[in-house]
Specification:
Elements lengths: L9 E4 L3 H13 L3 E7 L6 H5 L2 E6 L10 H11 L3 E3 L9 H9 L3 E2 L4 H8 L1 H9 L16 H11 L3 E5 L8 E4 L5 H16 L4 E5 L5 E9 L5 E13 L2 E7 L6 H17 L4 E9 L5 E7 L6 H8 L3 H9 L16 E8 L1 E2 L5 E2 L6 E3 L6 E5 L14 E9 L2 H14 L1 E3 L5 H9 L1 H4 L7 H5 L2 H23 L6 H22 L1
Parallel strand pairs: 1-2, 1-4, 2-3, 4-5
Antiparallel strand pairs: 6-7, 6-8, 9-10, 9-12, 10-11, 11-14, 12-13, 14-19, 15-16, 17-20, 18-19
Helix pairs in contact: 4-5, 5-6, 12-13, 16-17
The structure holds adenosine-5'-diphosphate.
Length: 504
C-alpha cells in the first residue's frame, strides 16, 4: 500500500513512559488529539492520564500488549486515530507494524516498511550504503557460512575482530575475538545468542576498532526526496554497549570532519529512500577515520540534545513530514547553538554491574532551572514496573558552551533526590566530572577503563564529609550567615534522604 497523504487529526502513541509523554506534548501543542495505549501494569501511568483518550491493550508483558500489532491497530481504528507514533523500542523498527498501519490506512509516523527492513539488517544496510561510497568497517559483507573461510577472512582483517549478529540491536549479539584459537567457540556463542535473541542466527565479521568514539548524526527526510542532517551527537559513554551519557555536538569533530560525516549520513539516508526522523551511527577511530555502523529508523532516546542545540522540535517535524509537508528549512539554514548534555537516569545499581533495581520511588525530586529539561514518566510514590526498560528519566542540560553545560548538569545531578531504588545518578556525576570526559579524551571503553564501584562509595564519603563540615558549622553558630544556612538546609535534607536510602 502506498503512502497516504492527509492531515493528521488524532495520533495514537504506541508506547509508554517518558517517550509517550514527550511525543504527546508536542502533538497537543499542534492542536492534534492524542490517544494512549497501556498495559495492565501501566493503568496509573502519567502517559495514560495525559492523553485525551486511553485504551488498555492487554496484560503487563510487552509481548501481550505493547508488541501486539493487531491490538494496537484495532485500538487506533476504534477511536478514529489516523496516525500512529511508535516512539522508540517496542514496534518502532518493525516493518510489519509499519505495513499493518498502511494496510489499515493509518499514517505510520516513520519511514517506509521497506526502509525499515533494509536498515533492520546490518548486512543489508551495509550493502545499500556501499553504493553511496559511505566508509564501512573492514569486514565480511555476507553471513558466515563456512568456518574455515571465515577464519581466513579474520586473519586477513587482523585480530581483534568482532562477530556481530546481522539482526542485532541494543548492544546484544556481539563478541570480541582477540585471537584465532578463540574464533570457533566465540562464533558458536554469537550464533546461538543471535538465534535466541533475534530469531536469526546470521552473523558476520568486522574489524574490532579498539578505542572508538560513537558519533551519530540526526537525519531527516521528507516525501519529496529532501534529506538534511541536524548535526552530531556523541554517545561514547556506554555500559554493556548501551549509552548512558550523550552530548551534542561532539567535541571530537572539526568543522571539516563534521561536514564530511554529515554528508555521509545524508547519503546513508538517500541509499534507502529515507523519510521522517532517523539516526546514522558511526564509529570514529583514534586517527579520526569514521565508519558507518548502522541506521536507527526512528526517533532516538537521545534526540533532546539535538533539539537543544538546533531549536528544532523533532516530533513536530515528524508530524509535518508524515502528513506530506516539505521540511520547512534547508541544510544551510541550520546552525549549532551552544552545547547540550544528556544523562540517563536508570533504576540500576552501578555497583552491581548496572543490574536493574526495580522498586518504588519513595522520594522523587527532580532538578529545575534555566537550561534544564527533564523528560520522565514518573511521580513520587510510583513503582518502576519490572516488565519494561528501567529508565526513570533523561536529564538534559543546555548552555552556551561545553564547560558551562558540564557545570550545569553536575549542579542538576546534585539537585536530584531519588530514594527507594539505586540509580545511575552518582555514576553520571562521576563520569561527567572525570578529567577524561572534561577534556574530551574518552572513548567507548570509558566505563571499563575508569569506573570502579568503590569510586561511588568515595563519592558518598565526600557527601558525608560535607555533612559533617556543615553540622560543625551549624553548631558553631555560623548558620546566622544566610548562604551557609541554605547550604546547611540542603545538606540536611540530603542527609535525611541519604539515611532513608540506606534503610531501603
Ligand atoms: P546495536 O545495534 O546493538 O546498538 P551497534 O552496531 O550500533 O549495535 O554497536 C553498538 C556499540 O558497539 C557501538 O556504539 C560501539 O561502541 C560498539 N561497536 C560496534 N561495532 C564495533 C566495531 N567494529 N569496533 C568497535 N566497537 C564497535
Amino acid at each position: 500500500m502506498a503512502f497516504i497523504m492527509q492531515k493528521i487529526n488524532k495520533v495514537l502513541v504506541a508506547n509508554r513512559g517518558e517517550i509517550a509523554l514527550r511525543v504527546m506534548r508536542s502533538i497537543k501543542e499542534m492542536g492534534i488529539a492524542t490517544v494512549a495505549v497501556y498495559s495492565e501494569a501501566d493503568r496509573q501511568s502519567l502517559h495514560v492520564r495525559f492523553a485525551d483518550e486511553a485504551i488498555c491493550i492487554g496484560p503487563p508483558p510487552s509481548s501481550e500488549s505493547y508488541l501486539r500489532i493487531d491490538k494496537i491497530i484495532e485500538a487506533a481504528k476504534s477511536v478514529g486515530a489516523n496516525a500512529i507514533h511508535p516512539g522508540y523500542g517496542f514496534l518502532s523498527e518493525n516493518e510489519d507494524f509499519a505495513e499493518a498501519c498502511l494496510d489499515a490506512e493509518i499514517i505510520f509516523i516513520g519511514p517506509s516498511p521497506n526502509t525499515i527492513k533494509i536498515m533492520g539488517s546490518k548486512l543489508a544496510a551495509k550493502e545499500a550504503v556501499a553504493k553511496f561510497n559511505v566508509p564501512l568497517v573492514p569486514g565480511t559483507s555476507s553471513p558466515i557460512s563456512d568456518v574455515s573461510e571465515a577464519k581466513t577472512i579474520a586473519n586477513k582483517i587482523g585480530y581483534p575482530i568482532l562477530i556481530k549478529a546481522s539482526a542485532g540491536g541494543g548492544g546484544k549479539g556481539m563478541r570480541v575475538v582477540n585471537s584465532e584459537p578463540e574464533f570457533e567457540s566465540q562464533l558458536e556463542r554469537a550464533t546461538s545468542e543471535a538465534i535466541s535473541s533475534f530469531g536469526d542466527g546470521s552473523v558476520f565479521i568486522e574489524k574490532y576498532i579498539t578505542n572508538p568514539k560513537h558519533i551519530e548524526f540526526q537525519v531527516f527526510g521528507d516525501h519529496f526526496g529532501n534529506v538534511i542532517h541536524l548535526f552530531d551527537r556523541e554517545c561514547s559513554i556506554q555500559r554493556r554497549h548501551q549509552k548512558v551519557i550523550e552530548e551534542a555536538p561532539s567535541s571530537a569533530l572539526t568543522p571539516e570532519l563534521r561536514k564530511a560525516m554529515g554528508e555521509a549520513a545524508v547519503n546513508v539516508a538517500k541509499s534507502c529512500e529515507y523519510y521522517n526522523a532517523g539516526t546514522v551511527e558511526f564509529i570514529l577511530d583514534e586517527n579520526k577515520n569514521f565508519y558507518f555502523l548502522e541506521m536507527n529508523t526512528r526517533l532516538q532516546v537521545e534526540h533532546p540534545v539535538t533539539e537543544m542545540i538546533t531549536g528544532v522540535d523533532l516530533v513536530k517535524l515528524q508530524i509535518h513530514v508524515a502528513q506530506g509537508e516539505k521540511i520547512p528549512f534547508q541544510q544551510k539554514d541550520l546552525s549549532i547553538r551552544g552545547h547540550a548534555i544528556e544523562a540517563r537516569v536508570y533504576a540500576e545499581d552501578p555497583s552491581n554491574n548496572f543490574l536493574p533495581d526495580i522498586g518504588t520511588l519513595s522520594t522523587y525530586k527532580i532538578p529545575k532551572g534555566h537550561g534544564v529539561r527533564v523528560d520522565d514518566g514518573f511521580e513520587q510514590g510510583m513503582n518502576i514496573p519490572f516488565y519494561y526498560d528501567p529508565m526513570i528519566a533523561k536529564l538534559v542540560c543546555h548552555a552556551a558552551d561545553r564547560n558551562t553545560a558540564i557545570e550545569k548538569i553536575i549542579r542538576a545531578l546534585n539537585e536530584y533526590d531519588i530514594t527507594g531504588v539505586e540509580t545511575t545518578i552518582g555514576f553520571c556525576r562521576f563520569a561527567i566530572n572525570h578529567e577524561a570526559f572534561r577534556n574530551g579524551n574518552f572513548d567507548t571503553n570509558f566505563v571499563g577503563k575508569y569506573f570502579r564501584p568503590e569510586l561511588l562509595q568515595n563519592e558518598n564519603g565526600f557527601e558525608e564529609e560535607q555533612i559533617a563540615v556543615a553540622l560543625a558549622a551549624m553548631l558553631s553558630g555560623e548558620h546566622q550567615d544566610k548562604q551557609k544556612a541554605s547550604q546547611i538546609q540542603g545538606i540536611n535534607s540530603k542527609w535525611k534522604s541519604h539515611r532513608e536510602h540506606k534503610r531501603d
